[in-house]
């Protein structure tokens, strides 16, 4: 735009090419450099809106060289190379126009997906070359700014002193088992893991391969242990499947597609899985916006279908005691209650009210817990809180309890008594909060 707010250039090719631009940079020759975090690649377009250069494989994220994981910034350097900051690969990389890597700062692909993970960077979202040739970067989830030289030596740091390593790496689902141990889907480490209260590993599955590409699991989003059968129900996100394994790690079932009215529907990005009546499973697939009840072979007995309330990125669903299903419709910033028989919407929660009668809009809710007919816990990820809400008046859901600001973009929680164990996605840890009446 110019000084008169006249648009001089716009680029809107559609989500297939440009899904979530995080940063734009005008290069020396007048090209526009764009970091597309959702498509996991960098693109450069000229004034004719033609793509003249890309880096990374579009919509194919990975930690290996020449592939990206949520790039947040791309800038041209003085020498014509490009510097990148990858928010979920925790690295800063300089590449040439020939796509050769000059140097990087952070973990190698194997180190990044191994436990414990060294904490060089945690969620960097910006990097820029200084006149001295050194690089300043925002190490956002570690709460600091860092300056390094081209040899990878830290020359300056301002902010907090972070942990040296993490045992967990982007944990998502958490379940407290009958023996009081924790079962966690440890997404970045490509594993599910059972640990005791001291952090000792009792069981793990998924990351036995020597490299990330040879592992059994790829970014598992959810695991639920069926303790009656001694089986693990796993949502294997990036492998686009659900699997069921036993205690000896034998794969008992693999579901890569579901069958609805004789039509096979491939899974795209399976998220949650929950046991319901009999041998049935309630699942969500955020990539294809599916919420369904299936058997353990993938046959659908019920599927959400309401054209007046289309879903966008549903992360979680759970069955109530009154033959209804609550759906966490994440990108629509709402929670739906739907009748199981008719698919009719019974309730929509988009706003909650605090004690001062202030109206608060939900912002990317990820998980809920139906405590009783009148109480629901909502994990509202972008509002960075877990809240317990009185839902008796469906027009005025009121916050009864709410956590402080120490929860950052969390994905899951598990209730035990009056406490919740929360998987702290960005800080790679478990938190315990207790609400007092």
Automatic annotation (TrEMBL):
GO terms for biological process: proteasome-mediated ubiquitin-dependent protein catabolic process; protein polyubiquitination. GO terms for molecular function: DNA binding; ubiquitin protein ligase activity; zinc ion binding. Signal peptide: none annotated. Keywords: DNA-binding. InterPro entries: 6-blade_b-propeller_TolB-like, TRIM-NHL_E3_ligases. It comes from the Bacteria. This is DNA-binding beta-propeller fold protein YncE. It comes from Fontibacillus solani.
């Amino acid at each position: 735009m110019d000084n008169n707010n006249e648009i001089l250039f716009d680029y809107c090719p559609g989500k297939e090419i440009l899904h979530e631009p995080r940063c734009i940079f005008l290069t020396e020759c007048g090209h526009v450099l764009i970091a597309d975090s959702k498509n996991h690649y960098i693109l450069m377009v000229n004034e004719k809106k033609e793509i003249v250069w890309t880096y990374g494989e579009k919509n194919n994220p990975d930690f290996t060289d020449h592939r990206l994981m949520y790039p947040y910034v791309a800038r041209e350097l003085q020498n014509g190379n490009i510097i990148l900051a990858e928010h979920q690969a925790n690295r800063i990389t300089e590449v040439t126009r020939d796509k050769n890597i000059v140097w990087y700062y952070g973990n190698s692909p194997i180190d990044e997906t191994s436990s414990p993970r060294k904490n060089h960077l945690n969620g960097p979202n910006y990097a820029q070359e200084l006149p001295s040739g050194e690089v300043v970067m925002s190490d956002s989830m570690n709460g600091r700014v860092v300056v390094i030289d081209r040899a990878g030596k830290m020359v300056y740091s301002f902010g907090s002193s972070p942990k040296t390593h993490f045992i967990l790496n982007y944990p998502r689902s958490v379940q407290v088992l009958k023996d009081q141990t924790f079962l966690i889907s440890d997404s970045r480490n490509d594993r599910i893991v059972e640990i005791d209260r001291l952090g000792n590993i009792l069981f793990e599955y998924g990351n036995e391969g020597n490299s990330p590409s040879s592992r059994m699991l790829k970014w598992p989003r959810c695991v639920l242990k069926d303790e009656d059968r001694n089986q693990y129900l796993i949502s294997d996100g990036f492998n686009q499947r659900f699997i069921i394994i036993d205690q000896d790690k034998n794969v008992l079932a693999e579901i890569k597609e579901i069958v609805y009215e004789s039509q096979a529907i491939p899974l795209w990005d399976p998220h949650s899985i929950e046991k319901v009546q009999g041998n049935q499973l309630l699942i969500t697939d955020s990539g294809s916006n599916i919420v369904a009840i299936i058997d353990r072979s993938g046959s659908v007995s019920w599927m959400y279908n309401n054209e007046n309330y289309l879903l966008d990125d549903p992360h979680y669903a759970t069955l109530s005691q009154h033959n209804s299903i609550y759906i966490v419709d994440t990108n629509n910033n709402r929670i739906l209650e739907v009748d199981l028989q008719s698919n009719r919407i019974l309730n929509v929660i988009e706003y909650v009210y605090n004690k001062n009668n202030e109206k608060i809009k939900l912002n990317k809710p990820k998980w809920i817990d139906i405590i009783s007919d009148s109480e629901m816990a909502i994990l509202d990820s972008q509002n960075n809180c877990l809240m317990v809400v009185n839902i008796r008046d469906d027009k005025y859901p009121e916050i009864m309890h709410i956590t402080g600001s120490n929860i950052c973009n969390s994905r899951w929680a598990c209730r035990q008594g009056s406490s919740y164990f929360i998987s702290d996605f960005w800080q790679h840890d478990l938190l315990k909060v207790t609400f007092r009446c």
